[in-house]
Amino acid sequence: MSKFLVSKYKNLEAYTPGEQPKKGEFLKLNTNENPFPPHERIKDEIIKYTNTLQLYSDNDCKKLTSTFANYYNIGEKNIIFANGSDEILAFCFLAFCDNSVCFPEISYGFYKVFAELFSVKGEKIPLDENFKVKPTDYFNKEKTIVIANPNAPTGIILSLNEIKGILENNKENVVIIDEAYIDFGGESAIQLTKEYNNLVVSGTFSKSRNLAGARLGYAVASEELISDLNKIKYSFNPYNVNTLTQVAGVVSLEENDYFIKCCNSIIENREKFVKDLDDLGFETLPSKANFVFTKSNKISGENLYNKLREEKIIVRHFTQSEISDYLRISIGTKENMDRLVSVIKKIIEVN
Ligand SMILES: *Cc1c(COP(=O)(O)O)cnc(C)c1O
Question: In 3D, which of 82, 48, 42 has the Cα closest to residue 239?
């Protein structure tokens, strides 16, 4: 740290991203990326736009907006795009968190970081004894609410009725539902934005749409909320979504069969992996995401994490005491998961 850093950031604890090792060195099951490459047509379409890169990108993301609006049957004024949904969430914190915000105690690490960065008091609401977000804990909060659904790193989902309950009991504050993992078996709250003008649904092309490296996130909400988010965007970085990423996003939405096929195969691999873990004596939380949160009855989370790493497999371990027994494991291809299961077997047997 230099002596020049603004004093209010001296104690800021930045988000720690999962490790990104060199390609091919490890089996990477630590950051919930999609194991399948983007649709091959994305390359062909992107190439057509490389000779326009001397120009700024379309700050309104017109083609992407109309394609997305059509896909989800929503209005074009109900959408905003950004450089990943992390940026969407940052805009939401800036736009809607005046003094205070609340979110589950065990959830996506960025909520806490943004609260600190933007000097907003962050109330952390504990999960229940089954690691579930308890909807009634979020009733009548009188402050902005952020909930990841499915939650991370647990993978547990709230039903649309539970989300509705939260919305019915928070008419005077904004409710942000972070749907980074909604496409792996959950039901999106996007259509509820037509009914509730205080609901923001954020999402990303990073996980289910195979485009983590392209950085594309979105929010869907009432026109008023979207215009607030645009005010922040146009005060910060109007060209936040680059030309090539906009093209990639459009093609991803157009190639729907491929999207469905990738999601279905991840869901199938997840269900099989959970069964295999059951057979090995693991306890796994019920996941609707492209990862599972699981603990062994034979070996500690930290120990298993280290042993897997020695075998060139990286998963995610969190040191927070309530969840330090658990590992968060991203779902890869069938071959990936079979290899992981056989390595886990070997580790447990000699342990
Ligand atoms: C991955 C993730 C995001 C951020 O995704 P981007 O890559 O920035 O679009 C947001 N929320 C949750 C819960 C996530 O896991």
Answer: 82
Report how far residue 31's alpha carbon sits from residue 18's, in angstroms, rounded to the nearest whole number: 6
Residues at CB less than 6 angstroms from ligand 1: 84-86, 108, 148, 152, 178, 180, 204, 206, 212, 217
Cβ(179)–Cβ(99) under 8 Å? no
Name the CA dihedral angle for 23, 255, 177, 233, rounded to a multiple of 10 degrees: 80
Per-residue pLDDT tens digits for 33-52? 999 999 999 999 999 999 99
Q: Tell how far the Cα of 171 is from the centroid of ligand 1, in angstroms.
A: 26
DSSP string over 45-74: HHHHHGGGTTSPP-TT-HHHHHHHHHHHT-
* Amino acid residing at 21: P
Q: What is the pTM of this model?
A: 0.97
Please check whether residue 131 is in contact with residue 156, taking contact to mean a CB–CB distance below 8 angstroms.
yes
